[in-house]
Design goal:
Layout (H helix, E strand, L loop, with lengths): L7 E2 L3 E4 L6 H8 L2 H4 L11 H16 L3 E8 L5 E10 L4 E8 L8 H16 L4 E7 L3 H9 L3 E12 L2 E11 H9 L1
Parallel strand pairs: 5-6
Antiparallel strand pairs: 1-2, 2-3, 3-4, 4-5, 6-8, 7-8
Helix pairs in contact: 1-3
The structure holds coenzyme A.
């Protein structure tokens, strides 16, 4: 991993670093309760200060090899659709993936496309050995994406978080580099 914060290109998407000019749209999309309800680390309400401070951390986190976060954008018109990132544990060659797609853009396959691009990037470019994900128990959409991109369900943390007024299970997912490579080749 060098210090060049590149962009990733897929059929329909560009995954590129966030800039401060994304703050307004970021607040609009990430500030939707339907996003924060499903995520463990997105505040509600989502203020411009939240957006500025989050985006401002990305460059150093990348240089220090702690995280790589991309804005998910439409390739043809550049519109911001969502976000995807890997939090890195460099010494273990491991990353934790997280993502969201703004409500108006959901159910068009964008998250699946972005997750596959991040798996390629994590396993091939960053040479990670393992990528993990966590989902809130009722997040069937994210579970579907992880399942179809090759993650295995590895365990359940019972009553792990207090969400929407009740204790809720967290499901742990993982995929290993050789499993991903086998899938890509076959
Ligand atoms: C999860 C999320 C990123 C999915 O984004 P998306 O771009 O709509 O996802 P995709 O279109 O690539 O795939 C959605 C899949 O879920 C399926 N799906 C949709 N609604 C579903 C439901 N209620 N139950 C089960 N599966 C469902 C779709 O059919 C599709 O699967 P398919 O391609 O096999 O038909 C988006 O809903 C989101 O941002 N949610 C809030 C934040 C979040 O949950 N982030 C993940 C935290 S782990």
């Amino acid at each position: 991993m060098n210090n060049n914060y590149l962009s990733l290109i897929t059929n329909r998407l560009i995954l590129r670093p966030f800039t401060l000019s994304d703050v307004d749209l970021l607040c609009l999309l990430a500030g939707d309760r339907r996003i924060s309800d499903m995520c463990l680390n997105i505040p509600y309400p989502y203020s411009p200060e939240n957006g500025v401070s989050w985006i401002s951390e990305h460059k150093d986190a990348f240089i220090e090899k702690k995280a790589v976060i991309f804005a998910v954008c439409q390739k043809d018109n550049g519109d911001l659709l969502g976000a995807i990132g890997l939090e890195l544990e460099k010494s273990d060659k491991r990353g934790e993936i997280g993502y969201w797609i703004g409500y108006p853009y959901q159910n068009k396959g964008y998250a699946t496309e972005a997750v596959l691009a991040m798996l390629q990037y994590g396993f091939r470019t960053l040479s990670l050995n393992r990528i993990t994900a966590t989902t809130i128990a009722w997040n069937n959409v994210s579970a579907r994406i992880l399942d179809k991109t090759g993650f295995q369900k590895e365990g359940v943390l019972r009553n792990h978080v207090f969400k929407k007024g009740k204790f809720t299970d967290i499901v742990m997912w993982g995929i290993l580099q050789d499993e991903f490579m086998d899938n890509v080749i076959n």
